[in-house]
Structures are given as structure tokens and as C-alpha cells.
């Protein structure tokens, strides 16, 4: 997605340790037209696949997942990282190590909003090591839902997350709107 | 907004202590068409006001704020509750007591994305006691930005938040898409 790639090259900053600062477009500030474009390209890429629902993880996955859901006209559920007071009944929970935050991150989805047999597309902001995405995939397994694809805004291909997801047995189409091949000092190189 | 009111009456559950469970439409699962409608009605209500930016708070404010931002074609910034590793430089921080979570909630916005002189519309999911919204208003004061209005998806008018915001000196138009006048056992009454 060219508009996204342009913004990453213009505004992205390598903070070291594999951390890319693009909070001007994805993790703090959002640009409405860029978001609409992300949803359109994501929906177009998965247009030939039957999608019943989109699953993402709070916080920064919500915006791109919602824009994709609007284009595909399907509901979205976002995994919570802490159990809200309103989450009752059956809860699916998985955990993943967080490289940017340290420790483990829990992901919780209510059984009310993830049904057996549904075809679910996962949409998230980053694909780095793939740990969080694998936890989302496991949530779908737990619910007996069908994982039909993974859509990512920014993939850092040098962290091997795509291969890790496939190696873990989640062999589905993975599409990234922008792929970062390397970050070296001030130089960010797109694939 | 009739479609929202209908869904609240159909799916909302009073969990006691003023807690309304509407996570099927606002805090966990999102309905794409309902979200588009929220953005349209919010934008329409504030159409005569010059808005340069929308401010919301993670997590559940992001979706309605983004939909409003798309209609008004302005950027959105969402206050973070923990400082992300990518948040650098000047940071505006305010804290508010959380009645649903206990303790204090911190709200952080980077000075990069909140500028002096900007006309800012606050959009959030709930208006209850108004504590979180007042903290968002104070963030704008700290940044010397202009608060031009407050848009809320669901107001619980019986908690007096609207009056508290005005009493705190933030005397701007406040618009709620749905207003709950009372919750008594299984009976939710809209204003």
C-alpha cells in the first residue's frame, strides 16, 4: 500500500531493538484517509475468502480491524488484555510474551463473540516475532472457529514472525500492507 | 440515534452499581454499520463547529472517535493509559479516578499530536461521573488547545457527569447519541 509505505519512510523512526516508532499513523495518532485506505486494501486482498468475523487485539489493532470490518460488513471482536467487569460467562484466554513491553500479555475473548464454525480473519497492527498473532490463532482454535487469514498493517520481516506462525501449524494466507526488510540506524528499508 | 437506542434496549444488561453491559456493540464486539452510523450522527451534530482534531481515550473510545474523524476528515489522537516505548519528548498527563476499575487511570498524550490553538472535539464511549472526560479536558488546557465540544456514545445521565463537566468550567456543547435516564433491576430506561 503505497500511501502507507510513503508515510513510514517519511515519519518512521528506528528506536533500536527492533522498535519502529510510527505513532503518528498507527499507535497514537490516526489519519482518517490512511485508515480508510488500509481497510479497503485489506478487504480487497481477502475478497475471495468467506469471512464471517474479524478478530484483533486491543489497542492498536482496533482501528485497522474496524476499517476492514466496515469494508467486509462483518462484526469485529477485539481481544481484551485485562478482564473487564462486563466480561461474563465462557472466556477464552491465551498468553504471549511481549518483546516491547516485557513479561506476558494475556488476550481474552468472550465466548459470546467467537462462535464455533465461524470463518475468522485476524487483523492486527504489527507482525514482528509473531507471538501475539499465534496467541490470537490459538484463541480461534479454542473456540473451534476457522482461521481463514491474517492481515497485518506493518510486517517486520527480519523478525521471522511469518515463518513462526506457519511453523506453528497456522498455514493460512498472511498479507501485510507494508513490509520492513531491515532497520539499520536511521535507514528503514521496505521490502 | 435510534439504531443505537434499539440495540441498548435489546442487548444491554444492568450489572448493578451503575455498570451497563453493552459489550456486544461498544466495548468488545463492534458492529460495522452501527459504528458508521455513530460517526455520521456525531459529525452531523458538530457540523457547524470548526474541528481540527479529535481526542479520545483508549480503549473503547477509539472506534467511535475514528468513525467521527473519518466523517469530519480530521486526525484523531487517543490518550494512552500507559506510556508506550514509542512515546518520546513532551508528554501531557492527567489522572482520573476510575469507578469501574478502582484506583486511578492515567491519560497520556504526546505533545507531538496535540498542538496549541487547535480546535479539538472530544469523543468517548461513556459519560458517567465525567471524571475521565474532565481529565481529557484538562489535557487540552495543558496543551493550550481549544475544547470545542464533547461527543459521547452513551450518557448515564443519572450519574451527573454532564453537570460536573460544566461545573468544572468546561462549558461546551455536550452531545450523547443515547442517554440512559435510569437502570433499575432489569429495566433500562432511555431519556
Q: Mind sketching the topology for me?
A:
Two copies of one chain form a homodimer.
Chain A: H1 2-11, E1 13-16, E2 19-21, H2 23-27, E3 29-30, H3 32-45, E4 53-57, H4 62-72, E5 76-79, E6 91-97, E7 104-110, E8 119-127, H5 131-142, E9 146-156, H6 161-167, E10 174-184, E11 187-190
Parallel strand pairs in A: 4-5, 4-8, 8-9, 9-10
Antiparallel strand pairs in A: 1-2, 6-7, 10-11
Main interface by residue count: A-B, 42 and 42 residues
pLDDT < 50 runs, ≥5 residues of chain A = none
Largest sheet of chain A: 6 strands, mixed
The whole-angstrom Rg of chain A is 16 Å
State which percent range the strand residues of chain A make up.
35-45%
**Sheet with most strands: strand arrangement of chain A:** 5-4-8-9-10-11
CATH architecture of chain A: 3-Layer(aba) Sandwich
Instruction: Determine the N-to-C terminus distance of chain A.
Output: 12 Å
Report the CATH topology name of chain A. Answer: Rossmann fold
- Assembly state of the chains shown: homodimer
Give the number of DSSP strands of chain A: 11
User: How many distinct domains of chain A?
Assistant: 1
Q: What overall geometry of chain A do the principal axes of the alpha carbons give?
A: globular
Helix content of chain A: 25-40%
What is the CATH domain class of chain A? Alpha Beta
* Structure classification of chain A: alpha/beta
Q: What number is the mean pLDDT of chain A? A: 97
Q: Could you spell the SSE succession of chain A in H and E letters?
A: HEEHEHEHEEEEHEHEE
Amino acid at each position: 500500500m503505497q500511501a502507507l509505505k510513503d508515510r513510514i519512510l517519511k515519519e518512521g523512526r528506528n528506536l533500536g531493538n527492533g522498535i519502529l516508532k510510527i505513532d503518528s499513523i498507527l499507535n497514537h495518532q490516526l489519519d482518517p484517509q490512511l485508515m480508510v485506505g488500509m481497510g479497503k486494501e485489506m478487504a480487497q486482498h481477502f475478497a475471495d475468502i468467506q469471512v464471517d468475523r474479524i478478530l484483533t487485539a486491543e489497542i492498536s489493532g482496533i482501528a485497522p480491524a474496524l476499517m476492514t470490518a466496515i469494508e467486509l460488513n462483518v462484526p469485529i471482536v477485539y481481544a481484551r488484555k485485562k478482564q473487564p467487569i462486563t466480561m461474563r460467562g465462557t472466556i477464552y484466554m491465551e498468553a504471549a510474551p511481549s518483546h516491547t513491553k516485557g513479561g506476558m500479555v494475556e488476550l481474552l475473548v468472550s465466548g459470546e463473540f467467537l462462535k464455533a464454525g465461524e470463518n475468522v480473519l485476524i487483523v492486527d497492527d504489527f507482525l514482528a516475532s509473531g507471538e501475539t498473532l499465534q496467541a490470537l490463532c490459538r484463541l480461534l482454535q479454542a473456540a473451534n472457529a476457522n482461521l481463514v487469514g491474517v492481515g497485518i498493517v506493518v510486517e517486520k520481516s527480519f523478525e521471522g514472525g511469518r515463518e513462526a506462525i506457519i511453523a506453528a501449524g497456522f498455514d493460512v494466507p498472511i498479507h501485510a500492507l507494508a513490509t520492513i526488510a531491515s532497520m539499520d540506524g536511521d535507514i528503514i528499508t521496505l521490502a
